[in-house]
Amino acid sequence: MGLERTCVELGPRSYSVFVGEGLLGGIDELLGEGDWRRALVVTDDNVGPLYADTVTGSLRRAGLEVALNSIEPGENSKSMHEALELIELLATSGMTRVDLLVALGGGVVGDLAGFVASVYKRGMPFLQVPTTLMAQVDSSIGGKTGVNLDCGKNLVGTFHQPVAVISDVETLSTLSEREYRSGMAEVAKYSFLRPEMWPTPLAESAVSLKGVDKAQLAKVVNRCAAIKAEIVSGDECDTGLRAVLNYGHTLGHALEAATGYDGTYTHGEAVSIGMVYAGIVSEEIGSGPPGVADRHREVLASLGLPTTPRTPPGFDAVLDAMRHDKKNRDGITMVLIDRDNNPFVRAGLETGMLKCCYQRLVS
Length: 363
Ligand SMILES: NC(=O)c1ccc[n+]([C@@H]2O[C@H](COP(=O)([O-])OP(=O)(O)OC[C@H]3O[C@@H](n4cnc5c(N)ncnc54)[C@H](O)[C@@H]3O)[C@@H](O)[C@H]2O)c1
Ligand SMILES: [Zn+2]
Fold this sequence. Notes:
Blueprint: E1 3-8, E2 15-20, H1 27-31, E3 38-44, H2 48-61, E4 65-71, H3 80-92, E5 100-105, H4 107-119, E6 126-130, H5 133-139, E7 144-149, E8 152-159, E9 164-168, H6 177-193, H7 202-209, H8 214-234, H9 249-258, H10 267-284, H11 292-302, H12 315-323, E10 332-337, E11 343-349, H13 351-362
Parallel strand pairs: 2-9, 3-4, 3-5, 5-6, 6-9
Antiparallel strand pairs: 1-2, 7-8, 10-11
Helix pairs in contact: 3-4, 5-6, 5-8, 6-10, 7-11, 9-10, 9-12, 10-11, 10-13
């Protein structure tokens, strides 16, 4: 079994991200020592039947008393209501602040369980066992937790780092094709943000990554984890450097919002289109390397991702949604790319120019 390991360096809150094949059955060996005696595994109704037995078995071998709770799959479960139910469950089953909460699933389970772990008895340890590509390369690392309110996504949340992240790439073989591709958009994002870390251009490995070559996939997931770990280590609480992870997300979030999160675009699909747009804007303001938008298009298309909105919302709707972006500082703020492919944040972007770029994107 190949095993890659990256450390997220955060002083006393540092932890390891393990990436490999067949890791779920060896969690007892990877987890190491802790004060925990009991564990609650939180999963969802898709992931539980596939992987919960292996995970609970492994935790029991580590000497833990283990309980399991499954939530309904989907974004609607990332709610205060669901968080409170889990908190009640922890309390009524007598879990202490040194016991362990385990998140087994995608970003929904990870964000919800992480949030619950951060507030129960003012914080208990939690372990991330991500099972989507999106969660393995992005959401499980960095300690951002949260739930949605009716009036907006991720409006309640905390920073609470896990004790470890265990990413078993074998779990990705049961993901739907669309979810897998969607996660690939975040992989592409890392290759655009840190091209020097990609000895083989992503477009060249695209075919082998479509589920056939697990060892290659583990390497790619680990490389993304290493990039995210480095960025998070430099900016744990998202006050500067971490903003670059939003590359492609300004238009991406706007497309998701302008279509009412109705599934027209998955997050990754929207971000894929958003990265092409960020490339166009970078070219337009003269910062980006010439041809960067076309090069983005080529990589994203090789991964089966969209590079233009299929039924483009009008620019006014998109602009309105971009104006509501949480990350805005002074007018519309985007992450762009400079001549050396380094990302940077630019505030106060002019709407006429943004409209021109949108027309270039959809034409
Ligand atoms: N905390 C962060 O830093 C951060 C970063 C990015 C995104 N997020 C959050 O992550 C969430 C999205 O996460 P996601 O894309 O993983 O979606 P998800 O958790 O909803 O999972 C997608 C679907 O795949 C299913 N699934 C998961 N693993 C599977 C497997 N191995 N086999 C078969 N089916 C499986 C799930 O049941 C679900 O139906 C959003 O709520 C987003 O806000 C958080
Ligand atoms: Zn994203």
